[in-house]
Amino acid sequence: MKLSVITPVYNRADCILRCLESVSRQKRCGCDVQHVVVDDGSTDRTTEILRDYAATHPHVKPLFFNKNRGTNAGRNAAIANASGEYCVILDSDDYFTSDAVDVILSVMENNPEYRYYMFTRDDRTEEFDRVYGKGSYVEFEYVDALTGKVKGDYIHVIPRVILQKYPFDEEIRIYESLIIQQIYRDVGKMLFCNKTVVIAERDRPDSVTLHSVRVCKQAIEHKLQAAIYEIKLFGQDYIDFGLRDTLDGFYFEAADNSLLLGKYVECNGFLKNIKRKKKFLLWIISRLHLAPLYRFALRLYLKNKYSYSTIVNP
Known about the structure:
Layout (H helix, E strand, L loop, with lengths): L2 E7 L6 H13 L4 E7 L6 H10 L4 E5 L6 H10 L5 E4 L5 E2 L3 H11 L6 E5 L3 H7 L5 E5 H6 L7 E5 H6 L11 H11 L1 E11 L17 H24 L3 H17 L3 H9 L7 H8 L3 H16 L8
Parallel strand pairs: 1-2, 1-4, 2-3, 6-9
Antiparallel strand pairs: 4-8, 5-9, 6-8, 7-9
């Protein structure tokens, strides 16, 4: 079975070679793996490093955007050019363990009744060892994603044809969980193997996580879009599974972000759909048109929480 590794990259000259080498090591172990790397319009030496490396490593398929289009656009382009039956997404600032692909393919070959496989990143190893046991296998179902049992970062191994069926949203750029949750619903059940296959690097000043902090209008708009999509795509599922409180949380999130943008009418519309969750404070802020004050207070709080040195400004 052939595996295609999907890596979008933007201005990662300091670490892209480490990522590339980690995949090449899998080839030296005899694994059949392709590495599709999309340079998302980098302005540092990333493009040069990628071209030089691909020239001497035929398993690397490089693609180049002439301008920055975002992580999800890079993922979609890579998937469209992948040739493996399954794809695994490897961020450019992360890297495989020495036996990652061997572990992945072994689990898949020994459990062929599944179409979707999940593995561990090192920053969740301790948590999963405590909850599930080291090296354990767990079957997850779609409802587990709705209840939050399946939450946060995993290493996902997904059939290429399913990823093509559910392309990543290039407008929102982040919040890939919206796509992953649709795939969960499609496949029905997933096999999680608690074996660490990726070493993750976080806390970078240019981390995508920091771009989602609501100190600028774009981040707030993305949060609003994500909440609206969650309601639209999965709202009825939450009701059918008796998870009204969870659905109310997304309506609350949509109302909160609408309010931060000064969209009082939209905010009130979302508040009316909340059945159980407390909404009095948001209603008062909206009623008195205090969005600028609320946005200022939240900005100060978040900048203090994440520190001025790392936060992404408007």
